[in-house]
Amino acid sequence: MPLSEHEQQLLEQMEQALYAEDPKFASQMQGAGARLAARRRMIIGAVGVVAGLALVLVGVNTTMWVGAAGFALMVAAVVFALTPPRRSRAPLGAVQSDGTVRRAAPKPKSRPRGETFMQRLEQRWDRRRDQW
After folding, report:
1. Residue-level pLDDT at 66
2. Computed over its alpha carbons, how large is the radius of gyration of the chain?
3. What pLDDT score does 33 carry?
């Protein structure tokens, strides 16, 4: 039975609160989806290594460049298989007393050129103090 819209919203708020309070625990609780993604990356990496090895063997009989491309493919496949996938992190924020999550303010992209480091720190302090 599917969840109602209100229940889905409550569940999303609970997930956001969990990510905001303890991101390490929340990432550990991702479950089978993360294991499936890791298994898929290993399988793709193994196929890439086998294809690269085949290119290296073909390169021995033909030109050096085919063998070099095969070696590069093998290295790339191993790196792909062993590195963890990039995850889109949930935006962090502060958990309010009612259980909702207040999002963090977006970071400014550019810095004014004429300001010193201390002036920027003072401005950040003033903005934080104004938010509370």
Report:
1. 93
2. 24
3. 67
Cβ neighbourhood burial of 93 (10 Å; 0-12, 13-18, 19+): middle
According to the model, what pLDDT value does residue 67 have? 92
What's the token pair of residue 131?
């938010």
Token pair listed for 8:
């889905």
What DSSP string describes the chain? -PPPHHHHHHHHHHHHHHHHH-HHHHHHTTTHHHHHHHHHHHHHHHHHHHHHHHHHHHHHHS-HHHHHHHHHHHHHHHHHHHSPPP--PPPPEEE-TTS-EEEPPPPPS---TT--HHHHHHHHHHHHHHH-
Which tokens sit at 91?
A: 């935006």
The domain segmentation of the chain, as residue ranges, is 41-85
> What's the pLDDT at 95?
74
